[in-house]
Task: inverse folding
């Protein structure tokens, strides 16, 4: 399991700024969200230069996924997926059927895709995506009831397709969501041998200052480390 950071945690940060933040917090990878200030966005017409710049700025910190919500630049995104070797996470307010149609089009031109599932329809959406032979990404939200049970159902039914999880409300918010199941989710993932990525992200824009402070703080964390950050250790070991 690879713990990473979603760029939504610092939407105004450059790619190098995100890399520095990950280094401070001991995070191992990045999920980029379309529209954030990292620079890898469809408006950047010179894709080769954009990818070369991204590789130069992330030599030891891999980009593991790219989240996109709006269609319209699918050829550019497919080429980005192909160049970086990462899946496009198809998100947004459209129906899962509409996103599956988009996924089919992107796959035809060489992109790798996964459908984001969340909320009350997560299981039916996952079933429909799996029926279309498309991989899954799950948004784990501590405000949704029985988060650990939801994960268990996904792992039982679609574990081989679930490769990416965005964990909302981790990091500096972990203490606020005590008892909501974040620790249970991490425990289930560890016990299942989950080999995918878990990306930390804010649960709401109102915590933006807390995330900025947390990501900018000096020092690291880790098992046995004297500089371990209590909120992240709590996230990894359980919250009751």
Result:
């Amino acid at each position: 399991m690879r713990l990473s950071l979603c760029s939504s945690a610092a939407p105004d940060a450059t790619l190098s700024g995100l890399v520095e933040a990950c280094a401070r917090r001991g995070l191992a990878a990045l999920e980029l969200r379309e529209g954030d200030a990292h620079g890898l966005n469809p408006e950047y017409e010179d894709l080769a230069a954009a990818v070369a710049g991204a590789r130069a700025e992330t030599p030891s910190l891999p980009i593991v996924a790219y989240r996109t919500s709006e269609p319209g630049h699918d050829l550019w995104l497919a080429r980005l997926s192909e160049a970086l070797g990462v899946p496009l996470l198809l998100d947004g307010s459209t129906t899962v059927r509409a996103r599956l149609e988009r996924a089919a089009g992107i796959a035809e031109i060489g992109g790798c895709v996964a459908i984001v599932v969340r909320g009350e329809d997560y299981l039916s959406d996952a079933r429909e995506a799996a029926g279309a032979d498309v991989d899954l990404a799950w948004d784990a939200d501590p405000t949704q009831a029985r988060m650990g049970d939801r994960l268990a159902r996904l792992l039982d039914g679609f574990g081989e397709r679930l490769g990416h999880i965005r964990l909302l409300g981790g990091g500096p918010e972990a203490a606020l969501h005590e008892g909501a199941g974040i620790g249970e989710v991490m425990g289930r993932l560890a016990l299942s041998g989950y080999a995918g990525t878990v990306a930390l992200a804010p649960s709401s824009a109102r915590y933006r200052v807390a995330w900025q402070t947390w990501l900018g703080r000096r020092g690291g964390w880790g098992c046995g480390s004297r500089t371990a950050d209590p909120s992240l250790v709590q996230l990894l070991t359980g919250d009751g």
Summary: Confidence is low (pLDDT under 50) at residues 217-240. The longest strand covers residues 162-168.
